[in-house]
Design goal:
- This protein is an alpha/beta fold.
- It folds into two domains: 166 residues, Alpha/beta knot; 69 residues, Trp Operon Repressor, Chain A (Orthogonal Bundle).
- It is 30% helix and 19% strand.
- The longest helix is centred in the last third of the chain and has 19 residues.
- The protein is elongated.
- The structure holds adenine.
């Protein structure tokens, strides 16, 4: 996969040289290039921002440097390859989830446009739609100072799904959000530590019992920390023991969906 990131702080993306993503780049699994937006300015001060029309606090990123930068990135792509995806990190974007990461991991090229200040002149996104599939994306309901930290998170989430990046692909299967639930708790040696014992079932060697215990721990954790996820959970084909586990947590299965009992 090819990834291009445009930013006024190229150094901000340096962590993408480390760990699994850095290794993936060295191994040629990921061709990641960072571009300095200021290289696409034409004035002496390399200006990238200006005051907002209509007034208000803060500055807005000027359209022309963005058009120059994105045109240069698009020009490197073979004409027959079709439009690449342009991701614009923004708290005003659609929510980036594990499902989005899986979807984007199927693309051959992703371009990230890191806004700063109050954002990028809206006309850039309209203009860019002729050359890219434009997707404003938010990490969550909070505000960062710019898109760079969001790009670090999204590139890591997407990059680790590319074939060969994570050594043991099994580890991608049983992790939080892979099945719409939070992950079960994990333990390692010693089996007793500071008067705390690892749950006995995990030492039993009974794989069926262990799998069931882990599933039920996923339910318990998700109900406690992220009950919003349970509303989306497909409870249609749950074994009886799992329905009982949910009943103990205060949830009944109604038409294949989990419904919290009013008294729970
Ligand atoms: N830029 C600023 N805040 C952001 C957020 N929450 N998600 C993605 N990009 C952002």
């Amino acid at each position: 996969m090819r990834i291009d990131v445009v930013s006024i702080f190229p150094e901000y993306l340096a962590p993408l040289e480390l760990s699994l993503i850095g290794k993936a780049r060295q191994d040629g699994l990921l061709d990641l290039r960072v571009h300095d937006l200021r290289e696409f300015t034409t004035d002496r001060h390399r200006t990238v921002d200006d005051t907002p029309y209509g007034g208000g606090a803060g500055m807005v990123m000027k359209p022309e440097p963005w058009a120059q930068a994105l045109t240069a990135v698009a020009a490197e792509r073979p004409a027959e390859a079709g439009k690449p995806v342009l991701i614009v990190p923004s708290p005003a974007g659609e929510r980036f989830t594990q499902a989005t990461a899986h979807q984007l991991a199927e693309e051959d090229q992703l371009v990230f446009a890191c806004g700063r200040y109050e954002g990028i002149d809206e006309r850039v996104l309209e203009w860019a739609a002729d050359h890219f599939t434009v997707r404003p994306m938010s990490l969550g309901d909070y505000v960062l100072n710019g898109g760079e930290v969001a790009v670090l998170a999204m590139v890591e989430a997407i990059g680790r799904l590319l074939p060969g990046v994570v050594g043991n692909p099994e580890s991608l299967v049983e992790e939080s959000h892979s099945d719409g639930l939070l992950e079960y708790p994990v333990y390692t040696k010693p089996s007793s530590w500071r008067d705390r014992d690892v749950p006995a079932v995990l030492l039993s060697g009974n794989h069926g019992k262990i799998a069931q215990w882990r599933r039920h721990e996923q339910y318990r954790r998700t109900a406690e920390r992220r009950p919003d996820l349970l509303a989306e959970f497909d409870a249609g084909k749950l074994p009886r023991a799992d329905r009982t586990a949910f009943a103990d947590l205060g949830y009944d299965v109604v038409d294949g969906r989990l419904k919290q009992r009013p008294d729970a």
